[in-house]
Amino acid sequence: MLVEELRCRLDDLASEIEETQKAVQPLEEKLRRLKEYRQSILKVLEMETGPSSINGRRELLAPRKPGGEVHWSAVAADHGYAVGGDSAHRVVRKINPELHASIAHHCTYDRRTYP
């Protein structure tokens, strides 16, 4: 009796998982399109304002929080970096030092200011 009930619950869960995946798929597609659109706006903005450059280095326009600080989680997500429980800033710095250095910010890890 318990085995039958558990099998029935497994079938119910399988159906619910399938329905949830079908519901989430359009949202994931919409999120992907929105991120692409945001990146295209950032590129146009960079073309309009011109890239900043100090000592020949190019400054990347990065997503910012309302307070003006870099939104490192958005940067990591845009580049497909898995953050997990770590700091998104630290992950971007470790995986792609060139990207990290191209974003204007004061880095608490390197204890310096980037252009």
Fold and architecture overview:
Strands 1-2 form a two-stranded antiparallel sheet. α2 packs across α3. The chain is 60% helix and 9% strand. It has 4 helices and 4 strands, in the order αββαααββ. The protein has helices at 2-49, 72-78, 88-95, 97-102, and strands at residues 53-54, 57-58, 105-107, 112-114. β3 and β4 form a beta hairpin. It has 115 residues and is mainly alpha-helical.
Domain count: 2
The total count of strands amounts to 4
Helical stretch tally: 4
Give helix and strand order, one letter per element, not per position: HEEHHHEE
Q: Into which percent range does the helicity of residues fall?
A: 55-70%
How many angstroms separate the termini?
68 Å
Short description:
The chain is mainly α and 115 residues long. The protein has helices spanning 2-49, 72-78, 88-95, 97-102, and strands at residues 53-54, 57-58, 105-107, 112-114.
